[in-house]
Write a structure and sequence with these properties.
This protein is an alpha+beta fold. It folds into two domains: 99 residues, N-terminal domain of the delta subunit of the F1F0-ATP synthase (Peroxidase, domain 1); 73 residues. 60% of the residues lie in helices and 14% in strands. It is built from eight helices and four strands. It is elongated.
Length: 183
């Protein structure tokens, strides 16, 4: 289900549970998304926050200056706590994990479909309906194109990988032929 460390999970779970108690899950989600965007667009900020040679008091001052009043206290407190515990390098993972927790809370499960070419809107709807029936879950599907597949599709969901691609089929046939003993 998750690909992150125990540290990430612990902080993300604490953030989610606190937001839930405060009835702010979706408000925090909006702010988390905005914060992720800021971190992605400001690599110098990330380097500053993660810099071991920079005093924590300077990092706290920067957080207060930049984020106080712009982010809810729950998030600025999280950032301050991560700085104090020398775990600020986990911030992006924690925020991404929070987003996933909210998706699961809403009953949406991430999945990926890889095809050789772009699917039409109608094909995506039909495929989504079939995959939701198969998984018995409401899916939030990301579609990717990989021309090397030749045709067909690959479906990834949680720990499941289903390869119905033409390339995958050819590879299976090749493996079987390699294992077959010839007279």
């Amino acid at each position: 289900m998750y690909k992150y460390s125990n540290i990430t999970h612990s902080y993300s779970e604490a953030l989610f549970n606190t937001a839930k108690k405060m009835n702010l899950i979706f408000k925090i989600l909006e702010d988390v998304s905005a914060l992720i965007k800021v971190l992605n667009q400001s690599p110098r900020l990330v380097v500053f926050l993660e810099g071991p040679h920079i005093d924590n008091s300077e990092k706290h001052n920067l957080i207060d200056t930049v984020f106080k009043g712009n982010l809810p206290d729950i998030l600025t407190n999280l950032i301050q706590l991560l700085i104090d515990n020398n775990r600020i390098e986990y911030l992006s993972e924690i925020l991404e994990d929070y987003q996933k927790r909210v998706q699961y809370y809403k009953g949406l499960f991430p999945a990926m479909v890889i095809t050789a070419q772009e699917l039409s809107f109608t094909d995506k709807l039909k495929l989504k309906a079939c995959l939701e029936k198969f998984t018995k879950k409401q899916l939030q599907i990301t579609y990717n194109i990989k021309k090397k597949l030749i045709g067909g599709l690959i479906f990834k969901f949680e720990d499941t990988l289903i390869d119905y691609s033409l390339r995958g089929g050819l590879n299976r046939i090749r493996r079987e032929l390699e294992l077959a003993s010839l007279p």
